[in-house]
User: Which sequence fits this backbone?
């Protein structure tokens, strides 16, 4: 009796499992858009690392921010026959609570955020589409800068946390 019950259980288990293991035809779908972009981003610009080296808290207390560090994106082989001459950028990242539009740092360092600006000093806020300019055929350089800025409360109370700085963001280029 015990063998029969075990055999019946095994047969039922296999019967229940078998239909689930047989795959339906066409059970996976892919969707997307293939787009023709007018420019190619240089390989070395696809992952940019910016080193602020050593920044003195005294400089931040005195000036409220550091000097800007330049960043240049190399757009190669731009084809203007596609009719897309304007380029815009969106920087995506976690915003500072005290300094909206600036990038919040990760880790133990507190009281400081990372700002982005054009070469002319116009702020480039996070998570917003920002126009950068008009492209020409061939290669184009898109310049902007990054800087560290002290949060007002941390500057006023002299409570900037010292230590290694780390943050990351993603950028996406748009063409019109």
Assistant:
């Amino acid at each position: 009796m015990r063998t029969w019950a075990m055999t019946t259980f095994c047969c039922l288990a296999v019967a229940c499992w078998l239909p689930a293991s047989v795959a339906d035809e066409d059970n996976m779908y892919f969707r997307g858009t293939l787009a023709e972009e007018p420019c190619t981003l240089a390989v070395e610009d696809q992952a940019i690392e910016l080193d602020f080296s050593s920044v003195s808290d005294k400089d931040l207390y005195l000036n409220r921010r550091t000097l800007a560090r330049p960043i240049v994106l190399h757009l190669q082989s731009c084809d203007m026959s596609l009719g897309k001459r304007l380029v815009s950028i969106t920087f995506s990242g976690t915003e500072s609570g005290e300094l909206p539009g600036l990038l919040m740092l990760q880790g133990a360092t507190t009281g400081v955020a990372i700002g982005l600006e054009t070469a002319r000093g116009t702020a480039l806020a996070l998570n917003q589409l920002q126009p950068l300019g008009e492209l020409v055929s061939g290669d184009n350089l898109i310049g902007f800068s990054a800087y560290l800025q002290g949060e007002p409360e941390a500057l006023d109370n002299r409570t900037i946390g010292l230590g290694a700085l780390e943050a990351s963001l993603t950028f996406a280029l748009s063409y019109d």
